[in-house]
Design goal:
399 residues, two-stranded antiparallel sheet, 53% helix
């Protein structure tokens, strides 16, 4: 993301930057939590399977049965590797449907912080200390023999017990005073921290309210920032660059997005794996080149439709009436060996037209080229760029 242009309010930029960092942190945390959960789940399943297989092998005494189990293990390993590839392809095929929504991806309300603070917990300091009791110190009463012998000894014991009791009561009073002082200090610290946190949350929320007012007033920077938040909140499979640039043109109410498309390597070149028993080896099965190219073309078409859908569903028509999408990919030019960034897809979608699409049922490439008259590379996998006709793309974010 580039820095704020000259003349942009620094305080506002700081707020937007804080919002982006907070949203990005939350998004990364959610994605990391999901990945960790999936990995732990898969690890547990693998460990369970291995444990069961180990137990089975220990029970097998016959060498032939052991060999049969080994072959099954190797075949299962190849199937598991193939399944992982298929899961990857399924995730890519579902990029568009995974992004279909009936409600906004984010709202200004969702950007706000709670103006609350955890209640005070006194812990052990909240409980008064137990006071000493005389019964704990009082000497045993004299027996019948001692009463006949006299009470002088008992009197001395009682006097000593009284002194010990008085010392315990003083120690108790000192300790109880310290407890109350510590409790008061913690209560005051909690009160101050609560007031500070709530004040900061209110100040932050006031900034969000101003952000929302500027957005509704079609302030170019505010709308661009909000749309950037929308796209940054959209979760894609691993391997997507997830880099965007956004501008807003208030007069036609148009959002223009420059999107970094995933590289060709995002599509697995292997279709699966097979176990060859004669060599005790697991060999890859190549995916046909034509299928790889078709999958890549369909993938970037799905990304374009999903991006436009997420912006249109998350913004009102009074602010955004159309979305223009530029899809670039960073690669190496095979002819020169130099870094290249060809434009593979360029499309503009008016809201009224886009709202008629049933995204879960349409053909992405047919929709772009037929309904939206998009400029789509005839060979995107080979990095063949499109060159927008003069006047077709009114705004370009490319430097």
């Amino acid at each position: 993301m580039s820095g704020p242009p000259p003349g942009v309010n620094v305080a506002k930029t700081g707020l937007w930057a804080e919002i982006q960092r907070e949203r990005a942190r939350q998004q990364r945390a959610r994605e990391q939590e999901f990945r960790d959960f999936r990995r732990a789940q898969e690890r547990a399943q693998r460990e369970q399977v291995r444990a069961e297989k180990v137990a089975a092998r220990k029970a097998v005494a016959d060498l032939k049965e052991a060999k049969r189990l080994y072959l099954e293990d190797r075949k299962a390993e190849a199937e598991e590797m193939s399944g992982a590839l298929q899961d990857r392809v399924t995730g890519l095929d579902g990029v568009l449907t995974a992004g279909i929504r009936t409600a906004p991806l984010i709202t200004f309300r969702s950007l706000k912080r709670q103006e609350t603070y955890p209640p005070f917990d006194a812990g052990p300091l909240g409980e008064p200390l137990p006071a000493p009791l005389w019964e704990q110190f009082a000497p045993d009463p004299p027996s019948r023999f001692r009463r006949r012998a006299g009470s002088a000894r008992y009197a001395r014991e009682e006097q000593e017990a009284r002194a010990a009791f008085d010392r315990a009561r003083q120690q108790y009073a000192d300790a109880e005073m310290r407890r109350r002082d510590q409790l008061a200090e913690r209560q005051e610290a909690h009160r101050a921290a609560s007031a500070e946190a709530i004040s900061q949350a209110r100040e932050y929320n006031d900034g969000i309210d101003q952000f929302a007012r500027d957005f509704r007033a079609r302030d170019s920077e505010s709308v661009a920032r909000f749309c950037t938040l929308i796209l940054d909140s959209s979760a894609y499979p691993d391997g997507f660059p997830h880099q965007t640039r956004v501008i807003y043109r208030p007069e036609p109410r148009e959002v223009v997005v420059e999107w970094e498309l995933p590289p060709q390597a995002i599509v697995p070149v292997k279709r699966g794996y097979k176990y060859v028993a004669t060599r005790d080896a697991i060999d890859p099965v190549a995916r046909p080149e034509r299928e790889i190219k078709e999958r890549y073309a369909n993938l970037i078409a799905r990304v374009a439709l999903r991006t436009m859908h997420e912006i249109l569903i998350s913004t009102p028509a009074s602010v955004v009436d159309a979305v223009t999408f530029y899809g670039y990919v960073s690669a190496i030019d095979p002819g020169t060996g130099q870094p290249a960034r060809p434009l593979l897809l360029n499309v503009t979608a008016p809201r009224a037209k886009f709202d008629t699409f049933v995204l879960a049922a349409l053909d992405p490439i047919a929709c772009l080229t037929g309904e939206l008259t998009a400029l789509v590379s005839p060979n995107p996998y080979d990095l063949e760029p499109v060159r927008p006709l003069e006047g077709y793309a009114k705004v370009s974010l490319k430097k």
